Amino acid sequence: MSLGALSFLSPLLLTALIALPVIYWLLRTTPPRPRQIRFPATRILVGLENKEKTPDTTPWWLMLLRMLAAAAIIFALAEPVLNPERSVAIGGSGPVVVVVDNGWSSGDQWAERQAALERTIGSAEAQRRAVVIVPTAEDGAKTTLAQIAPADARRRAAALIPQPFAPNRSEALERLAPIFAAAPDAAVVWLSDGIDHGAAGAFASGLAEQAGGGVTVVAPQSETALGVFAELGEGGVLQARIVRSGGGAEEGLVHALSARGERLSEARFKFGVGQKQVETTFDLPLELRNQVSRVAISGERSAGAVQLLDGRTRWNRVGLISGANQEQTQPLLGPLYYIRRALAPFSELVDPKAADTAQGIRTILQQNATVLALADIGRLSEASETGLTRWVERGGVLLRFAGPRLEQGGDALLPVDLREGGRALGGALSWSEPQALAPFAEESLFAGLEVPPDVRVRRQVLAEPASMDAATLVWARLADGTPLVTARRQGNGHVVLFHITANSDWSNLPLSGLFVGMLRRIATLGASQSTGGGAGAAADSETTETATGANASRATAASGSDAVLSPVRVLDGFGALVPPPATAEGAPQSEFANLAPQLKHPPGYYRSATGQQALNIVNADTSLTAIGGLPGGVAQASYGGETRTDLKPWLLGAALLLLFLDVIAIMLLQSNWRPGRARGAAAKSAAAIALVAAAGLAFAIVGAGSVMAQSNSGAAQGSTASASDGASAPTKPKIDPRVALAATSKVTFGYVLTGDPGLDATSKAGLEGLVKVLTARTAIEPGPPFGVSIENDEISFFPILYWPVSDQTKALSDQARAKVDAYMKRGGMLIFDTRDFGQGMPLGFA
């Protein structure tokens, strides 16, 4: 039943309101209040009248209090709801199928989807219908859909979390076929993320064809998911492209973060109405730019709002040294011409142009180069070899190209030993025709690059087969199997050798686009020396430290037999880097460039023997489109609207408060209270105890202090907790087993012994009066009150301690203060009565 913005989930219980007149008739009278008469012997018969007395009527305000409490309980049991969700109408009479988009684009608005899912389950429960929950981003092969009760559906819904990959709606539709076949009148509520993902129209049409109870699509009202893609632009500027599926004007910030989460820079972006993508740039020097390990949109909690960076987005500083002097006269034939053209778009080139090779190497190393390319350099001097060895072991990449000088013999900074002389057409080791390149192996750094069919090699330096061991990496071969590019890991760096020249003298490979791709991948192996390792070292340390088990063995393998990139750190559905889940698997290196994130391959950092790469949700080709073109008859709704408020807890709390006020009123009436009339010590104590005890019981019911639970705790538990939680451990008090048994068998109140017999008797009398009232008017049956000594007795048995303060009260010892502190921390309540009530203006009365 609905009354405007107010609805009742159990409207039949409102019929209990007809019992209010009966309740009024039962509660309209109270027993006659005792009349106080002074009892001197000479006046015992004065003032007595022999008339029949009728019971005094209940005061109107007390009657109103009780009627309001009864009405509040009836309304609460009818489960009223303010601003109920009316945007989703569920048709049909079969089960309610709730399709939940829990892909990467749902992470930022996940709370809204959970609220909508709870409302839908509640509507199904009110109609006594079964529920089927279908996540669209899940391993369908391991999950069987079934009709379940709403209570079980709530547990299933609570276990749902966003996944860091796009939803697979076509698979969800296939899994739903048996449900629709068994229940043709099922109704579907699709809690979408508002993004098409390529198949939203077909998915909605499939649902509409099979769901006899109708289909309702719920989409975000205004805000849509944001994604970010980061890359290096012209001149090595780090730029970010933010994408969305459309909407109104929107602006925000995107942060550049280091591997440790430090914010290195930020950039502002602004969308116009209907605009789907914008670009922004970060103004960073080279040293800081190379420390950026991820770019994230501020305030967005999704895997698509985070872009992980690897060596491909690092601006490398590359040194160039040539052994020839032909570049000035014939630049197209120079050994460094094609290397410059290949590396310039994504590197900062350092060319000392020094005639002395050793001096040129020192200049480049002093400028903290990441990669050093040596074209046709023969044997290195001993000093150069020593300096380069230390540089490579710290993470540098030494890239060498063969030439006439290297044919005469190499040095120790080569991945393999070389045979003297070369292999050429018409030579001693001749070819009958130029050799083509073989396809790159799975374990190669160049795996996935396409080999042009017209690339030919006419001459090369040969590797000595006997020097090739398990640590030798062969990244490229000729069609006859001879190595073309070899490498060796040395410390944290690499030594790489092209067995051909860097120009077109020996091969046309430098003239092809393949040469650019090969050099770019080699350049990503380097770590910036200017920051002690920079982005590469930071990212490597982050992933290597988290690699465990099989992942760690793959990540640190030194041999060339490992062709799999293993996940070592992945993104969860909210965009946080976490260890890889049990479902994560390694990915073949040859397929990694075109790999789309999925359950087996979540976005994150993947590592192999040749380095690490990042897999992201958003790439250079990503564009987001809003869901559109829904078939006719499909209802549409939004997550927005007024917040639903359940009034049941508030009404029960109000009824409980009214009942406590009733208890206090009865206590006052039975103590012959009248406004302005003085009361005795017993009446004052009883009223104060009743007031504070009622408040204590209210706190116990709502769980504020867990008082009732604490009252039944054992003696050993209470004393141990007090000793551990207090400021200092008090001496363990002696426990009388009989007192412990009597105090814990029922709810028991205690009062602190003051040493004044009269005051202690008043305290006991007041508590005994409270026990009688609670026993007569509530379901609580407390035991007799106990007098306790704070210094010597165990106090953890009592949920409430009444403590009258007298003029003779002495200061507590340190141990007693620690005991009281522990008692309060465990949930106990202390009522201090300063006994000055009534000396000033009465509290609460005029």
Topology:
Elements: E1 2-3, E2 6-8, H1 20-27, H2 60-77, E3 80-82, E4 96-100, H3 110-126, E5 131-135, H4 150-158, H5 169-182, E6 187-191, H6 200-210, E7 215-219, E8 227-232, E9 238-243, E10 250-258, E11 263-271, E12 277-282, H7 286-289, E13 292-297, E14 306-308, E15 316-322, H8 337-343, E16 347-350, H9 357-366, E17 371-375, H10 382-393, E18 397-401, E19 423-424, E20 435-436, E21 456-457, E22 459-460, E23 472-477, E24 483-490, E25 493-498, H11 513-523, H12 534-546, H13 549-555, E26 564-571, E27 577-578, E28 587-588, E29 604-608, E30 611-615, E31 635-638, E32 645-646, H14 648-670, H15 681-702, H16 707-711, H17 715-725, H18 737-745, E33 750-752, H19 757-777, E34 786-788, E35 800-804, H20 814-825, E36 829-833
Parallel strand pairs: 4-5, 4-6, 6-7, 7-31, 15-16, 15-17, 17-18, 18-25, 33-34, 33-35, 35-36
Antiparallel strand pairs: 1-2, 2-3, 3-32, 8-9, 9-12, 10-11, 10-13, 13-14, 19-22, 20-21, 23-24, 24-25, 26-27, 26-28, 26-29, 29-30
Helix pairs in contact: 1-2, 2-14, 3-4, 5-6, 8-11, 9-10, 14-15, 15-19, 17-20
